[in-house]
Amino acid sequence: MADDKQPQQLTFNGNLYNLEDLTARAMEAFNDLILAQQKLNKIAAEVRVTQASQVGLEIAFAKIMEEDDIQPVPTEAEEVEEDTKKTNKKVN
Predict the structure, then answer these.
(1) Mean pLDDT by 10 residues, the chain (92 residues)
(2) Which pLDDT score is estimated for 66?
(3) Where are the beta strands (DSSP E) in the chain?
C-alpha cells in the first residue's frame, strides 16, 4: 500500500529534496535536527506544565499569607499617612 510508505522527500528552507539524495552525513545531520526539535517540543510542554503548577502555588501562598494575617511592609507614603493620623488624634 502507498499509505504505508515512509516519506520519500523532505522540505527544508523552502526547497524539496529526495531523501535518497542525502549523503550519510546529511542524513545524520537531519536526524539530529529532528531530535533537537523533539527535545525542544518536550521542554516547551514541561514549561507549560510548570507554569500551570506555579499559578496554583501562587494561589496557595496568597491564601496562607491571608490566613496567617501576614501584612506587607508599609510604603513610605503609608507610614507618613499613619503618622499624620496619629498626630491628628493627639491634637483633637
Answers:
(1) 73 95 97 97 98 97 98 86 76 64
(2) 97
(3) 9-12, 15-18
Does the global pTM surpass 0.70? no
d(CA 47, CA 43): 6
> Contact at 8 Å (CB) between 40 and 49?
no
- Sign of the C-alpha dihedral computed for residues 56, 62, 66 and 70 taken in this order: positive
The pLDDT assigned to 89 comes to 73
Strand partners of residue 7: none
Q: For residues 74 and 80, what is the distance between their CA atoms, to the nearest angstrom?
A: 10
Structure-block grid coordinates of residue 66: 491571608
Containing structural domain, residue 30 = 2-91
Q: Look-up: residue for cell 483633637?
A: 92
How many domains does one find in the chain? 1
